[in-house]
Amino acid sequence: MREPSSPTPATTGTVAGPSRREVGGLLGRALGAAGLLLAGLASWRFAAWSPPPPEPVSFPPLEGPPRRGPLVRQQGRVLLVQHGERAWALSAACSHLGCTVAPGPDGRTLDCPCHGSRYALDGGVLHGPADEPLTELAVEPDGAGGFVVRPG
Predict the structure, then answer these.
(1) Domain range summary for the chain, segments of one domain joined by +
(2) Which of 22, 122, 130, 132 might form a disulfide with 18, Cβ 3.0–4.6 angstroms?
């Protein structure tokens, strides 16, 4: 029988693991993937969020016969809710992470497409993860049957 010329796992009692090069390659790929994931999440978050408009937003008068029930009108990040002779305005920025909410399919809620928060038409939270109501905005009649919302 021949003697082995170099130690083997059987003769040294150790098992060879991955090389430094292999560990470095795995670590580099893992860090790269994590970086891409974080960059993607950050860009999505900021793409979904935009600041409220600095200027007043005008809503023209409604045409046609009066509606029964509430009506939600939206211009960007401003919501105007009209019900009978009453009108109020809300920021459309979700209080959870700032995504833009929109009227739900039935027109009786305001829904956030990002994480599923749902608000009542008065801005109160119906379903989280949001735990704060939508911000109320100042609204006033424009004198011609429409409304002007002044973002705050």
Answers:
(1) 18-48, 57-150
(2) 22
